Amino acid sequence: MPIEQIDDYPETMTEFELHWGSVNAALGGAPATDFELLGDYTLADFSADKAAVVTALSDQEGLDNNVDFARSDRDQTRADLRQRLILFRETAKALLPGSRYLRALPDTPAEQAEAQKLLDAWDDIAHVWAQINTDQPPEIAPAMQLRGGYTLAQFQTEVGTMRTRYDAVKAAERAAVDGRGQRDELLQAAYTRMVQYRERLPVTLDPGDPLLGSMPQITPSPGSTPDAVTLSGQWNSSPGSGLLSWNESTSPNVDHYLVRFSPGATYDSGNSSVSGNLPPGTTTHETLDGLASPGDVASFKVFVVLTTGNQAGSNTATITRP
Predict the structure, then answer these.
(1) Helix, strand or coil for residue 281?
(2) What pLDDT is stored for residue 20 in this prediction?
(3) Residues 6+ apart with CB under 8 A from 247
(4) In this structure, are residues 292 and 298 in contact, taking their beta carbons and an 8 Å threshold?
(5) Which residues of the chain have pLDDT under 50?
(6) Is residue 294 situated within a structural domain?
(7) Using the 8-state DSSP alphabet, how is residue 226 labeled?
(8) pLDDT of residue 223
């Protein structure tokens, strides 16, 4: 099948692998007569490269999932700590009205504020809290606690956890970027070998050989690509999910619609994942992919996939979760 998405590589490479085996058999079926590419590159080498590509694609899914997990952990801890900050301000105002401590209270940053701004606010709270405990005003002696007996020590532990959450997100994002770079190098090398295969085989086999006519395709044949659909997307507050909608394809032989997404405001095919495989006739899709937490942004495309395997992608629709 032609390569139109990264996920197409394993299937396309399998087609080349099988065709190469048939060529070797036609040439004599012995190592001495096997078809080779530049640098004595053999079918066995290509099979090893295909296995590496499959592993890299699978590993990248895991790395991207790790980013999602790290962001989810960060967001949950961040939301909890922000509520602690709000509760501390309310408690201090209620128990110590007019005191000097109120002047030192930090403002409450937005939940999506930069990490350092939030960390600074939490550090301010810890300092004020520690000073209150040191001074022991009669209203809170011997130490200030929040609702449920929550103490300064617990707060400091959670702030420490928050720092590790931020670091974990950065580490996961770095690993995902590095993984994509290594994956893309493998894909480029595989693509180059498939191009070489199609260029070299015609000068190896006799003109008119049936194996020349059955060579696998790397790119879609002219006129075989379906018309793309037009995609729109928005956040649907009820039931609380991203809503995608598109016009039904007028192309014949539609096999399914493939919905893909990538985190962020720009669609990145190299960092995209499958959100849904939908049957012909479907024109909407609700999802939380890439939109797990408030402030998340994700970009989507819908691909029309024909029974021939040819496909075409829509425009990008970007959704921001409030």
Answers:
(1) coil
(2) 98
(3) 229, 230, 283
(4) no
(5) none
(6) yes
(7) P
(8) 57
CA atoms within 13 Å, Cβ hemisphere of 198: 15
163 and 23 part of one domain: yes
Tokens of 262: 């990538």
pTM above 0.85, yes or no: no
Cα atoms in the Cβ-side hemisphere of radius 13 Å centred on 75: 13
* Separation of alpha carbons 171 and 169, rounded Å: 5
Whole-angstrom distance, CA of residue 260 vs CA of residue 262? 7
Determine the number of helices (DSSP H) and then strands (DSSP E) in the chain: 6, 8
Q: Is the peptide bond before 31 cis (omega within 30 degrees of 0)?
A: no
Q: How far apart are CA 301 and CA 267, in angstroms?
A: 8
pLDDT tens, 152-168? 999 999 999 999 999 99
Element (H, E) at 197: helix 152-200
Amino acid at site 267: Y
Cα–Cα distance between 146 and 319 in angstroms, integer? Answer: 37
The domain tally of the chain equals: 2
Task: Answer yes or no: do 204 and 314 share one domain.
Answer: no
Distances (CA, A) of 46 to 43, 51, 205: 5, 9, 20
134 and 181 within one domain? yes
Residues 215 and 250 in one domain: no
Cβ atoms of 68 and 293 closer than 8 Å: no
Q: Are 304 and 311 in contact (CB under 8 A)?
A: yes
- C-beta atoms surrounding 288 within 10 Å: 14
And the tokens for 153? 């020590």
Residue type, 265: A
Q: Are 150 and 207 in a shared domain?
A: yes
* Amino acid symbol at 238: S
